[in-house]
Amino acid sequence: MKTFNEIRESQKTVVNKRLMGVPVKISSMKSKGKTSFSLYIDGDKLDDYKSEKEAMMTAKEFVKQYRKSKWHFKFIL
26, 31, 40, 72: which could join 15 in a potential S-S bond, CB 3.0 to 4.6 Å? Predict the structure, then answer.
């Protein structure tokens, strides 16, 4: 059985950058012979994806919608 530290160390950061001012992190993790990519936006985990490309496309779309709603919300109040 893997220990917590082994699991933590097996997760490697692939992308760590800012999209339109929002921090985005994609990390890869291998389990049971398959690699999954976890998407974190602003420190919160969104979901796991099969490929890095799919995770990045989702991050771009989410940040675009997030910025639009945040900008719109600011002017309503």
Answer: 26
Report the distance separating Cα 64 and Cα 60, nearest Å.
6
Find, among 44, 65, 43, 62, the residue nearest to 54 by Cα: 62
Contact 67, 48 (CB under 8 A): no
Q: Provide the H-helix boundaries in 1-77.
A: 4-10, 52-76
Stated pTM of the model = 0.77
Do the beta carbons of residue 49 and residue 31 sit within 8 Å? no
| Interatomic CA distance for residues 18 and 25, integer angstroms | 8
